[in-house]
Amino acid sequence: MKSKSVLFKIGGDILENHANLSSTISQLEQLYTTNKIQKIVLIPGGGTPVNFIRKLYSEFNFTEDVAHWMSIFSMNYNGIELSEKFPHIKPFESSRKLKKESRSFCLFLPFQFLKKKDELPHSWEVTSDSIALYLTKKLGINTCILIKEVDGILNNNNQIIREISASHFNNMRQSGKISQFKVVNNHLKTLSRPVDPYVLYLIDKYKMPCVILNGASKKRRILEFFDDKISSEEKICTVIKSI
């Protein structure tokens, strides 16, 4: 499976765990050096800084506008940290310059672009998931993949749903047919909302699928997804499609 260009959003659980992040970057480097993907664009998630902003928002009741831009600035901050850890990954703030790159392994810092365009709702229903799919469309990239620490969307029998439409996923979630929680290190981890609600709207609007892959260090889900020798039934992921 070869792709011309892929945008990978790296979630907080991957960014903030050294083993997970190293494994994710290593797998992406292999895809790039073997020419499985000609152009890789990374988008950082918000992670812990955004969780802190949520806490401040609930305690001090500042506006959603302020929370929105603080959260996106946190993505930039995480991106700068990522580029310092992996200096060979070139950071871009200019969409024009990024589009000119036909072959590259790079990172996009989204604050400047999003501030100028300002087309997304200022709401907690819009997280870095929605921003990733939005940027995939706006930057003219072929595929959007969300790298998280979950294998995908699970039904209430804890089975992975390998492919689902955005509308069907919404219906299943509302009717309680999506797994709610699992215990991770004695903490409940929500699985019923592995993506934010607005990304489902964008999937239908753009007619562009979105893939959830696990970037945890003990798994090789990213490489497996692009391996032609592995059948689609064997690949562990969730693909959310439009109708």
Plain-language structure description:
With 243 residues, the protein is an alpha/beta fold. The chain has a single domain (3-241), classed as 3-Layer(aba) Sandwich (Carbamate kinase), CATH 3.40.1160.10. It has ten helices and ten strands. It has helices spanning 12-15, 18-33, 47-60, 64-85, 95-100, 111-117, 128-138, 166-174, 197-206, 221-225; strands at residues 3-10, 37-44, 90-92, 104-108, 143-148, 163-165, 181-184, 187-190, 210-214, 238-241. The strands form two sheets. The chain has an eight-stranded mixed β-sheet, sandwiched between helices. α7 packs parallel to α9 and α8 packs antiparallel against α9. The longest helix is centred in the first third of the chain and has 22 residues, at 64-85. It is globular and about 50 Å long. Residues 181-192 have low confidence and may be disordered.
